[in-house]
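Just scan this pair:

***
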Amino acid sequence: MERKATATAHPNLAFVKYWGRANADLNIPQNSSISVNLSSATTTTSVAFLESLNSDVVKINGRVSRDLRVSHHLDRIRQLAGINENASVESWNDFPASAGIASSASGFAALSLAASKAAGLDLDERQLSILARKGSGSACRSIPDGFVEWVAGTNDGDSYARQVAPPDHWDIRIFTVIVDEGEKPISSSKGHQYAETSPFYHARLAAVPRTLHDLRQALLCRDFSSFGKIIEREAVAMHCVAMTSDAANYEWLSGIYYWQPATVHMVRTVQTWRRQGLEVYFTIDAGRKFPQKVVPLEAVFIVILFWKCAQSPHPQEGGIVAVVVERWIVWAGTLFVAVHTIHRLPLCSLLPFRPGTLDI
């Protein structure tokens, strides 16, 4: 008998990051985090458990994948469901996996829902979040709708994601700008491993509870200015830990630098925009990315137009900028000129989130 299901999930963007793991085997983080799901970027995954298969067959964007993490995750689901059939998995992203957006989050969220349904399981949101976390830590945040908090917890049962606010709570937007086609010098996984060697690691952890409280309040009150300043400071704090980590086996590195020269340039540009009256904020993930920036809606329409005129059909590999958008203002031209003059950077598609939802 064929057991089959299809699910969709969205990647998420963290406002308060997690950096460092308390339990690497279970993907339990050292600190809680807050994120939002991005509805315009989608992973669609179909899973069929078939008696005729001798092994799992996994295809991602039409290509056979040898990623053992998928089969290991399917093993967890088979054990829960008490079945032993191998699975055929087909997964498609409508955004580039290497564009700086966390495809592993949406990938393992969609896989967890599709595979659990195909196996006959009926897991609630918390159970699904815990399951997805074991595949990829940030995948747990792609299970609840809208604005999400991943509660770090201390064990397998209490480290899960929950909704902070529904998708329609705040009408903001996110877009990305590719700035570097190179690979990370050190993977995020390695970065987590070395985090505790930084002299600033414990200082950041001590500050995170207050950061989470303040950001939660700003988000719920739609306090755009407070929200933007919190996510900027949090991003810089996390990267200070990375930059001062002792990367063992990388003797030529004094720390882990995910920033590029253009990143610093963009940080300074964002500050200039604010001085000129355009309320823009950034955040930076652990990758070769520009800051994710916060700008008003009218300005983003100008950026979309610029992207289309530039005829950059697909984002390239490497770093990104994401822009979170709120409000109508008259400074659209300022943003257009500034983006146009930053090393003539290619722009990717707008990712307006009206925050995303999991679907089957």
About this structure: The radius of gyration is 20 Å. Residues 201-221 form the longest helix (21 residues).
